[in-house]
Structures are given as C-alpha cells and as structure tokens.
Amino acid sequence: MSTQHSTRRAFLQSAALAGLAACAPRMSLAAADTRARFILVILRGALDGLAAVPAYGDGNYVRQRGALSIATLDHKLDGLFALNPALTNLHRRFLERQLVVFHATASPYRERSHFDGQDVLEQGATAPASVHDGWLNRMLQVLPVAQPRGTEQLAVALSQNVPLVLRGAARVSSWVPSMLPNVESDTLERIADLYSSDPYFAVRLHTALATNSVAGDASGMTSAGRDPLGQFNAIASAAGRLLAPEDGLRIAVIEARGWDTHASQGADTGQLANRLRGLDLGLEALRTELGATWNQTAVLIVTEFGRTVAVNGTSGTDHGTATCAFLVGGAVSGGRVIADWPGLAASNLYQGRDLQPTLDLRSVLKGVLGAHLGIAERDLEGSVFPDSRSARILDGLIGQT
Amino acid sequence: MVSLDTVIAANRFGLGARPGELAEIGADPRGWLALQAAGSRPVPGPIAELPGSAVLFETLRQAQRQRRQSPRDARTAAPSEKIRQRQVARYFDQVAARYRVAVETRESFRERLVDFWSNHFAVSADKATVLTLAATLENEVIRPNLAGSFADLLLAVATHPAMILYLDNQASIGPGSPLARRATRRPQNNGRKLGINENLAREILELHTLGVNGGYSQADVTAFAQVLTGWSIGADQGSGAKGRPGAFEFRERAHEPGAKVVLGKRYAEDGAGQGRAVLKDIARHSATAQHLATKLARHFIADEPPPGAVERIARAFRDSEGDLPAVHKALIELPEAWRATSAKFKTPHEFVVSALRAAAFVPAKARQLVASFQVLGQRPYTPGSPAGWPDTAAQWDGPDALFKRIEWAAQIGDRLGSRVRPLQLAEDALGPSLSDATRMAVARASSAAQGITLLFASPQFMRR
Q1: CA distance A371 to A141
Q2: Nearest Cα to B217, choosing from B264, B158, B255?
Q3: CA A323 to CA A107: how far, in whole Å?
Q4: Among A53, A172, B124, B441, whose Cα sits 20 to 30 Å from the Cα of B283?
C-alpha cells in the first residue's frame, strides 16, 4: 500500500494513533450487558405541537387555530389526536405500536427565548446556566456497558460540534459528511505528532479519526438537494450506519433546524408540512440503515418549547410553551398518546395564549433513560437530572407488548 | 524584533497578519489599533460596487409577483426560478466582496468590529426573503455606523428592510389599527384576523439590547411589539402599501394606536416616534451596557470573560452614552486582552480569513469559498438564528470540526503549493508566537503544500 495516497482509514491502524489511544483517559463503567440504542433528535426553533399533532377532537381546535387548522385527518391516533398528514411513516410506526406521542409537554423553562429554552432542555436543569454540561453527557458517566469502552466509542453527535446536551466530562465523538478531499496519511501522522504535546487537540483528532472510519467517506453522498431540513436525511442515515453494527456506537444526537414558523406556517401543506415530511423521511432512512438493530432502538424527538395556540398577524405562530414529543423505535412500547390534555378553551391556555403544560418533559427523559438504558433511579434523580423529583419517572415506555 | 503585543494586535484584535504586516505595525500596536477605532471610513470599493438593498428588494418582489401569477403546478419552474438563480449569483458576489475586503484590508481590527456588530445584529440568508438582503445590513448599516452611537446603530438596524423582513415585522399589524378594523369587516377575509407578530420586538430586547436576563417581561414584549406595528417596508403592492420600495416605511394605518408602557415607562402615541423613543431608551439602558460589554469581552478576551474587564467596558459604554469609538478604545486598554495565552479558539470564519491573509490569497471563485465555509460549518451570512454565530469554543471545537479544518488546510496547501515558502509564511503570520514544534514541523515538511497544511493545522494557528 502506498502511504502517499492512503487515507485516514489506513492511518487508523498506524502506530501513531495507537499511541494516542493508549494515553487517552478511560471512563470506568460498571459491567452490565446492554445493546440498547438511543437517538435524540432535537428540533431547534420550537416545533408547533398543534400542527404536528393536531387535537382535532378538541371542540375549540378549529376555532382557536383558524387558518392553521389541519383539515386532512388521515393519520388519526385516537378520538382526540391525529398526526400531521406529512408524518406518514411515523403513523405506520404508531399502528405497529412502535410510536408513543406525548402532548402538552414542556421542559421546566417558562420564558420564551429559543436560546435559553434550548439550554434548559439540553442541560436538564430547571433554569438556564444552572449547570454547564448536558444530561446526556452526565448519563454517559453512569451508563452500564458490556465492556469497558471509552465513552467516545459509545456516543456521537451528528454535527461537527457537540451540542450542549452531549457536552461535559465524558468524551464523545462527532461526525458530519465532508465534501473535502481526504488528507494523506503521512500528513495526518505529522499533525498527530504536532498535537502530541497538546491534549486538547490530540484527543479531538483521535476521536474524529475513529468516527470517520465507521461513518464512511462522503464520496457516496451528493449534495442534500431539496431536503427541507438541509442534510437531515443524509445525517440520519449516517447515524443509522454508526449505530447498526453489534459493536457500534449506541447513542447519537441529531439536530434539525427551521421550526421557528413566525410567518406563513401553512397547514395541511406549506412550509411546516414540508419540514415535517423531511423529518418523517429522515427518521425512515435512519430505521432502514439500522436494520435489525431497530428492534433495540428508541428515538426521542424533542423541541425547546411550543408556539402560540392562535395564529399571529403573519399567518404564523409566536413563541409558546407546551408542545408535543415523539418516542419511536422497535424497543418502544407504543401505539398510544400520553397526554393529560388541558384543553384549548381560552380559559385553559397558559397565560391566555399557549398550550398549558401538563407533562414535565423530564418525566419522559427519565422514563426512557431508566427503562431503555438501565440508568439507576438514584442516578436519574441525582447527577443526570438534579432537582427533578417533581417530574415523576414515566414508566412503561420501553418493551414491546 | 517583532514583539508579542504586535502579534496580538494583528491576530487577536485584527483578522490575522498578512505578509509584512507585523513589521508595518511596528512598535506601537495600541496606536495602530486606536487609529482604526476612530472616525468613519468610506465603504470599501468591492463592497460599494454591489447593488444595494433597494434594488435587491425590488428583485425579490418581482420574483414573488411572478410566482403568484404563475399557475399553481408550475410554481417551481419558469421565470421565478430564473430570478432565484440571479439572486444566488448576487449572494455569491456579496460573499466574494466581503472576503476580498477581509483578506486585503490593512485595517483588520476595524473589519473585525464590522464582523462583531454584524453578528450581534444577525440576519440569516437561509431565510429565502433575505437571501440577498442579509449582506446589505452589514454593508449599509454596520459599516457606516461604527463611528457613532449604539443608539443610532440600533435605530438603523431596526429600520433596515433586512431586519424587518427577517423578523417578520413588515406585516405586524395592530389589532386596533385602522387596517385591522377594516379587514375584519371584509367578508372575503374569511375570518382571518390581522394582528401583531412579536418576533422583532422580542429579539431586540433579548438579543440586541437588554439581554435575556435584562429584566423585561412578556408584557413588555407584547407592548413593544405593539409599538413597532407599522414599522414596515415601502412597496408597490398590498393594501395600504406605499413609499419607496426597499426603504423603511412607517404605515400609520397598521400601527396600534394609543400610549404603551414598556419597562415601566409610558410612551405617548407618536406614530413612528413612539418606537424611536423606546429604542433610544433601551439603547442606553444599563442592562444593555452590561450585555454588550459581556459579548465584547467574550470576543476579545475569553469565553468566560473576567468580570472586571466586562465592568470596564460597561462603564465606558455608560460614560460615553454608548459612543462606539469610545467603547472600542476601551477594549484596546484592557490588560486582560493582551495576555500572552491565546484563549480564543477561532471560528471557521476567523480561521479561514486568517489563513487567506497569511497566504495573501483570495480564491477566485466565491462558490468555492462558500463550499469551504459550508463544510467548516459557517456558511457566510447564515447563522441560522437571530442570535448570530456562537462565540465560544465549545460550539466550534468538536472533533469533526477540527478534522474538517485539517482537511481544508490540506486543500488550501495543495492550492498554494509551490507558490509560497511555508517557513517564511509561518514567521510572517505568527512571529514570536510560532512554537518551536510547529516551526520544526513546517521546516521538515515533505513539500511546500504539506508545510502550509501543518502551519494552518497547528494549535497556534487555530487560536488567537
């Protein structure tokens, strides 16, 4: 093999990298067999829960929503709720009892800043900036695993930069497709050597190389075309490839932007419906790539908060409070909607404008991490979600019935 | 012998040393910076030649008209598609001009200040209606207003079509306004109520001025949104539309009449003057001083800025009633900003600009430049949110992000290849901050291309 033209893949086996790996700190984790896969999808910008999951059976729904009412109800879930017509594949999962829909849910955050809202959601705290790392990272530090592995071999952010939810003391990987040419392995070795006295750079390079070797080169990927969510489909597929192998990564975070629909939101069709279709198709691509591993998988889809119940002056919706969330996967005990429905009558709205939150999103998060990943209750209530006792752990979300 | 302060002036305050620039700065780096903080400048040539927001707005409206008139099933095809392609070409022209100026300017501290304020008042070109207008906010509002007060800058931003369109204020209509009252009486409106859109009001309070913990409530947001109803753009279409296309237009008939209370102060009805009065007050608010000082200190010192430095900038802001040159000069005088350790991890924009400056190289094709930034995670003019691009390392230093920089460094190394002498380039760019290890690696590289790659991939070059 000619060193000159070999790629980073070859470099992985090189002595330089082995040296790097050896000096990397390891997490000590209790041995407990588990193959469960968990994927968190963060919808940034505040998804309108009443558009994604219309409460068509609420007598006030059409009156309150006006032009934004969803009229096509092909995907009814029960007598109260339906899925947006764009969520065709998610509806199939619902019928196969692999989808739980949560409604009227919210994090503890009650203001309306996207940025603080996302911080609270990802920090798993009660107020912005009360902790500085993310709950998924803290979870990694107590996750039972079959064999001791570095946490960067367990968790990956499908983005160049690690989102807050996955930031913290435990090391994680990150990856997105590249359109740049490969770097010669000789150059990489020299860079690794240059970094050898600087752990900040050395650790990152090592992690990037390890992830690259599994996710694959970008050469097979063309531009994202007309995917309304940018690269979501390509990235969800890559997540599937990373998590599918038996010894693959187990935890992934994917982000999708573009949910801040202040103007021309659309209803059965239009801007938001297109994005929801992109989400639905991306999740389907993820399922396809996971193959049989789908049966051990739970995908949780959350957003920072909801939107106003009423349409605003520009045929959109402004920042609100409660919204919906989804849990889908072969490991999920689904086919139901979990909602303590507060109603859409004007007097039932939060501050007279938003869907009233009745389910603390942390109850869902704790329920999934506990039942699916085997996180002990004391850890859930302790390091992972501090000060969250008021959010009772939601049982029964995992395990096919 | 070049001093470390000179390197800091060029690389931390400026956008990175060009060949020969460290020598040019000479023995008075603070003086070099202070000159750049003072006074106004003409808009640089390549940018001045670009079409302005009025022309671009007209193209946008034309596209929208054609789209509306074309049959439903043919909407993606035909004339509007041609206009869209033209708009994309305009966007590339804007990117080309921006980076030509960034790479070639001899006043790169000033250019960094443009970047800072442009990012503070972020508008994202990934929203279709502002694809070509995003850049005009930077070029028409930020650049000409750096020699004045923050209040003037804020007003200029809030009345620029890019910001109004980006945050949806052009159609925010007071429910008690004449326009709304008439509309509700019209049967063909089918019960659709005209009303306010609080997006612009919220982001001005949260992001542009007071900051999220600046002490305002939802009631303040709602009241301020009512104040801003009617702040729109002149156009030749729609009911009640008049005024110059693409210019700020106050639509009296869309404005919610009456006095409003914002942050405990009552503002009498005064048409557009009501909004100007609120903006003037919040621009000078002490929470605004604190919020802006924190962001500036974060940009020039460290992700977690030292409170003492924040306080000194805030004081300069308050003492000068938000005079921007005074605030910028205060930055130069912060001892914390001159520490030898490079605490800031460059953003992709800073990384690429500093590399291109070091190589004195402007890529001929804007398309390639955009593609590079896309891969590195910072496509020009598209922060994706009104909060702008993040300014902390944690958002940029992921393993894959680092790897993409290495890949880009390899690509640019190949492009520059034999045209440059890597060791000379390294000395010119980093001066005494070039480490022995990097110097050795560059000197021993197997090719000039590899030497450049190693320099740009080095820890010193990734930081400032």
Answers
A1: 17
A2: B264
A3: 10
A4: B124
Taking the Cβ of residue A17 and every Cβ of chain B, the question of whether any pair is shorter than 8 Å is answered with no
| Whether B454 and A351 lie within 8 Å, measured CB to CB | no
Taking CA atoms, A277 is separated from A84, A229, A232, A322, in Å, by 9, 9, 11, 22
Which residues have a Cβ under 8 Å from the Cβ of B219 and sit 6 or more positions away? none
Q: How far is CA A139 from CA A124, A126, A373, A385, in A?
A: 11, 17, 9, 9
Nearest-Å Rg of the Cα atoms of chain A is 22
pLDDT number for residue B207: 97
pLDDT band of residue B73 (cuts 50, 70, 90) is low
Check residue B187 and give its pLDDT: 66
Cα B415 → chain centroid: 29
- Interior angle at CA B122, CA B119 and CA B125, nearest 5: 115
Bridge partners, residue A38, by sequence: A251, A298
Interstrand relation of A37-43 and A297-303 (parallel, antiparallel or unpaired): parallel
The nearest CA of chain B is from the CA of A159 a distance in Å of: 8
* Residue of A322, A329, A275 lying closest to A300 (CA atoms): A329
In angstroms, the CA A67 to CA A266 distance is 8
**10 Å Cβ neighbour count for B58?**
15
Q: Which residue of A has its CA nearest to B454?
A: A191
- Whether residue A194 lies within 8 A of chain B, CB to CB, comes out as yes
SS3 B119: helix
Contact criterion met (CB below 8 Å) for B124 and B91? no
Amino acid at the residue B96: A
pLDDT of A222 strictly over 70:
no
- Structure token digits, residue B165: 């369109």
Per-residue pLDDT tens digits for A91-132: 999 999 999 999 999 999 999 988 889 999 999 988 877 788
A179 touches chain B (CB under 8 A): yes
Residues 6+ apart with CB under 8 A from B31: none
The pTM score is: 0.78
Q: Which of B387, B402, B438 is the closest to A194 by Cβ? A: B438
* Chain centroid to CA B50: 17
**Tens-place pLDDT, residues B450-463:** 999 999 999 999 99
Instruction: Tell me the average pLDDT across B275-298.
Output: 98
Integer Cα distance of A42 and B253 in angstroms: 41
Q: Determine which of A30-44, A76-90, A216-230, B144-158 has the lowest per-residue pLDDT on average.
A: A216-230
Say if residues A330 and A240 touch (Cβ distance below 8 Å).
no
Distance CA(B457)–CA(B406), nearest Å, equals 6
Q: What residues of A are in contact with residue B387 (Cβ under 8 Å)?
A: 114-115
Q: Are B256 and B228 in contact (CB under 8 A)?
A: no
CB contacts of A262 in chain B (<8 Å) are: 167-168, 197, 199
| Residue of B403, B407, B411, B458 to mutate when probing chain A, most A C-beta within 10 A | B403
**Which is it for strands A297-303 and A173-174: parallel, antiparallel or unpaired?**
unpaired
Question: Residues near B193 by Cβ (< 8 Å), separated by ≥ 6?
Answer: A66, A311, A313, B175, B180, B183, B184
CA A204, CA B394: separation in Å to the nearest integer? Answer: 12
Beta partners for residue A354, in sequence order = A308, A350
Q: What is the DSSP letter of A253?
A: E
Q: Which of residues 392-431 of B touch A (CB under 8 A)?
A: 394-404, 406-408, 410-411
CA proximity to A221, closest of A237, A210, A243: A237
Question: What is the rounded CA–CA span in Å between residue B135 and residue B141?
Answer: 10
Q: How confident is the model at residue A17 (pLDDT cuts 50, 70, 90)?
A: very low
Report the amino acid identity of residue A8.
R
Identity at B151, one-letter amino acid code: A
Tokens representing B328 are: 């910028």
**pLDDT > 60? residue B236:** no
For residue B72, the model assigns a pLDDT of 57
